Amino acid sequence: MAFMNHRNRLQPSLIPEPVRRVEAGPWAIELLPGSAYAARYVATHAAIGFAFDSQRGVHAIGSDRVRPFDAMPNGLAFVPVGCDVMSESPMGGEYLRVLRTDGMALPGDRAFNNRIDPQATALALRMRGALLQPRVADDWEAWALALAERLKG
Questions:
Q1: Helix, strand, coil abundance in the chain, percent, nearest 5
Q2: Residue 19 CB contacts under 8 Å (≥ 6 apart), including other chains
Q3: By the 8 A CB rule, do 45 and 101 touch?
Q4: Which of 10, 51, 119, 126 shows the smallest number of beta carbons within 10 Å?
Q5: Which among 99, 152, 96 has a CA at the least distance from the CA of 124?
Q6: How far is CA 42 from the centre of its chain?
Q7: CA distance 50 to 125
Q8: Cβ distance 62 to 108 under 8 Å?
Q9: Euclidean distance between CA atoms 87 and 61, whole angstroms
């Protein structure tokens, strides 16, 4: 029987998980690793987001009022073009971000988060899996378009 001590315990990785990114036609698709973050920007492109993990922090989305937030796991989010965004989380969670980079509008003009949509969850999980283990047959444009359609629901 081996006892755990500081010499034989697994050490945490010093190399952070990378941002994984794919560009497909008019789409930029990113898998952001779970980590602390602080962001402030005005959205130049509409963005679809999908939280794989729960996370807590503070944010002001389309407002100057900073409020605490709790992102639910498997929550769909949307930020329209021109929306002022401030968001901070001391731990963050793994997050999928899908942008339409050609200037074409995405459905919706109001920011939202924490929308639970089983079809969006299935699409986001498929995209996550493909970002982690890409295959030639991956259909990024179709998946991104299908996820954008879920914004209407």
A1: 20, 35, 45
A2: 30, 31, 32, 33
A3: yes
A4: 10
A5: 96
A6: 17
A7: 10
A8: no
A9: 8
What angle is formed at CA 75 by the lines to CA 72 and CA 80, rounded to 5 degrees? 125
CB-hemisphere CA count at 13 Å for 17? 16
pTM of the model: 0.85
Residue 9 has pLDDT above 90, yes or no: no
Query: For residues 17 and 31, what is the distance between their CA atoms, to the nearest angstrom?
Result: 10
Name residue 50's amino acid. F
Helices 118-132, 140-149: axis angle to 10 degrees equals 160
Q: How far is CA 111 from CA 54, 104, 117, 151, in A?
A: 19, 17, 16, 10
Assigned token pair, 10: 């697994």
pLDDT at res. 109: 84
Phi-psi region of 145 (alpha: psi -120 to 50; beta: other; left: phi over 0): alpha
Q: Which amino acid is at 141?
A: E
Structure-token pair, residue 152: 């209407």
Structure tokens at 17: 């998980």
Give the mean model confidence (pLDDT) for residues 93-117.
92
Which helix (DSSP H) or strand (DSSP E) does residue 47 occupy? strand 47-51
DSSP conformation class of 25:
T
- Res. 134: pLDDT tops 70: yes
